[in-house]
Design brief:
Lipocalin, globular, single chain, 9 strands, mainly beta, eight-stranded antiparallel beta barrel, 1 helix, 142 residues
Length: 142
């Protein structure tokens, strides 16, 4: 009985600590300064994924597999988000967001002097699980 209670309490605590928009978001449409950028794997500007796993932090994996870290501070009451580079200070919200449904979000705003319109779709990936389990072809203890 005690282990079931502990499991349920841990599950509630994990859900409680998750930030708004927690998860992996895949870019469906990326418009930069009015131009729609196609998903070319050599593109160093187009976002491939927006990944949010910690409060006030996010990172973007770009099409060329480079990673950019951001401060990510949503304000649900105003439907705005502060997105700025780590080490930079932003005093104003630079993105508006529109939640189409539970798995689709649209970001409109300005980042690094570029107007961005981004449509993102939630991917059903688990960011934190019970850990990595190594599977060997033969047991190590024989």
């Amino acid at each position: 009985m005690g282990s079931i209670f502990l499991f349920q309490a841990k599950k509630k605590l994990n859900n409680y600590n998750k930030p708004l928009f927690y998860g992996v978001w895949e870019t469906e449409v990326f418009i930069k300064n009015g131009d729609t950028l196609p998903p070319l794997i050599t593109d160093k500007n187009r976002w491939r994924y927006l990944i949010i796993d910690k409060k006030d932090k996010a990172f973007v994996k770009k099409m060329n597999d480079s990673i950019q870290h951001f401060q990510f501070k949503p304000a649900p009451s105003t439907k705005k988000i502060k997105i700025y580079g780590v080490g930079e200070k932003s005093k104003k919200y630079n993105f508006n967001y529109k939640l189409i449904d539970s798995s689709t979000i649209i970001l409109n705003g300005n980042l690094d002097y570029n107007d961005l319109n981004i449509k993102l779709k939630r991917r059903n990936l688990v960011l934190k699980s019970r850990g990595f389990n190594w599977i060997n072809e033969s047991p190590f203890n024989r």
